Amino acid sequence: MIDTTTIWIVIAALGVGSYFFRFVFIGLIGDRALPAWVLRHLRYTAVAVLPGLVAPLVVWPPATEGQTDGPRLIAALVTIAVGLWTRNVLLTIAAGAVALYLGLYIAG
Amino acid sequence: MPTETTKSIFLTGAREASPFILVVGPFGLLFGVVATEAGLNVLETMTFSILVIAGAAQLTALQLMTENAPTIIVIISALAVNLRMAMYSASLAPYIGPAPLWQRALAAYFLVDQSYGLAAVKYETEPAWTVRQRMAYFFGTIAPVCPFWYLSTLAGALIGSSVPEWLALDFAMPITFIALIAPALRTRAHVAAALVSITVALGLAFLPYNLGLLVAGIAGMVTGAEVERQTMKRAAS
């Protein structure tokens, strides 16, 4: 169970930090231009952080005490493939869910 | 005299944003359910969604908190997911920078993936719009998206712990994230950033305090930026 104080510290810090990121340029810097290299790095933050967060959860799922799990691994691979192929987020989530439930059902 | 009223532009924004309800709804629902399962009460869950309005960062924070990561690591990792908001802010600044401060302060709060994506494209295709018209469009895109985000979070928090175990909700988060990232892998730079991030995160998983994720994020970012720079250089020569 997560400690209540921790939860509120995290909520407050993320609230303030996220607002700062959103406000910093339209609010403080106005329409002055940013160096290209800064924008270039900012462009890749989401795609650099989220895969690193998800990869260990796919390979060593907490739900199976870290044991690599066939249905979950296959569902993840199906999701990647359908996402790259269709470029449609909703369709991709649906495909991943179908693969997961089918896999869990077959594995019993 | 502008041919389009600000009201009609606001409604255009709302109409063009309405398909995103289909994305935001399930995502909010997922956050509400996962937060409740992790032990957050309705007040904490709702405050989270209202103050942060960024599903991916919120789920990242929840995941790391349930892994008992140190608070500072939780905050840094989740904020890193939201760094892209700074890019959105920088990208819209030339268009709405001259608006009154209170409008910009309000727009900053509502600067989310959906409003940014729609506005960035629209401002380029409608260069004749005044700053007022641009703001009207921006707030129009918010009208269907953000209330829906709050409501779906609330619905998720209320369903919460009654979700049956066979639904394997533990894996809803990884699948949702993969489904968000894979379609966004448009260029070699994006693919390289993601691959480096995965490799480093798996390779450094033994590090304490989820430090592996921080290193993976930085390595992925630098890789993406560097591949883009080299691709541009090659294209130029």
Give the helix/strand layout.
The complex is a heterodimer of chains A (108) and B (237).
Chain A: H1 4-29, H2 36-42, H3 45-59, H4 70-86, H5 89-107
Helix pairs in contact in A: 4-5
Chain B: H1 6-17, H2 21-37, H3 42-52, H4 55-66, H5 71-82, H6 84-96, H7 101-109, H8 113-125, H9 131-159, H10 172-181, H11 188-203, H12 211-236
Helix pairs in contact in B: 1-9, 2-3, 2-4, 2-9, 3-9, 4-5, 5-12, 6-8, 8-9, 11-12
Structure description:
The complex is a heterodimer of chains A (108) and B (237). Chain A contains 5 helices and no strands. By secondary structure, chain A is an all-alpha fold. Chain A has a domain of 54 residues. In chain A, helix 4 packs antiparallel against helix 5. Chain B is mainly alpha-helical and 237 residues long. Chain B folds into 2 domains: 163 residues, no CATH class; 53 residues, no CATH class. Chains A and B meet through helix 1, helix 2, helix 3, helix 4 and helix 5 of A and helix 2, helix 3, helix 4, helix 5 and helix 6 of B.
Brief description of this entry?
Chain A is mainly alpha-helical and 108 residues long. Chain A is 78% helix and 0% strand. Chain A has five helices and no strands.
Descriptive terms for the model:
heterodimer, A: 108 residues, extended, B: 237 residues, 12 helices, globular
> What is the count of helical runs of chain A?
5
Helix content of chain B: over 70%
SSE series of chain B = HHHHHHHHHHHH
Mean pLDDT of chain A: 91
The portion of residues forming beta strands of chain A comes to under 5%
Biggest sheet statistics of chain B: none
Q: Report strand % of chain B.
A: under 5%
* Count of folded domains of chain B: 2
**H/E series of chain A:** HHHHH
| Class computed from helices, strands and strand pairing of chain A | mainly alpha
State the helical fraction of chain A.
over 70%
Number of strands of chain B: 0
Overall pLDDT of chain B? 91
Distance between the termini of chain A: 29 Å
| Oligomeric nature of the chains | heterodimer
Beta strands of chain A, count: 0
Q: Classify the secondary structure makeup of chain B into a structural class.
A: mainly alpha
Reported for the largest beta sheet of chain A, the result is: none
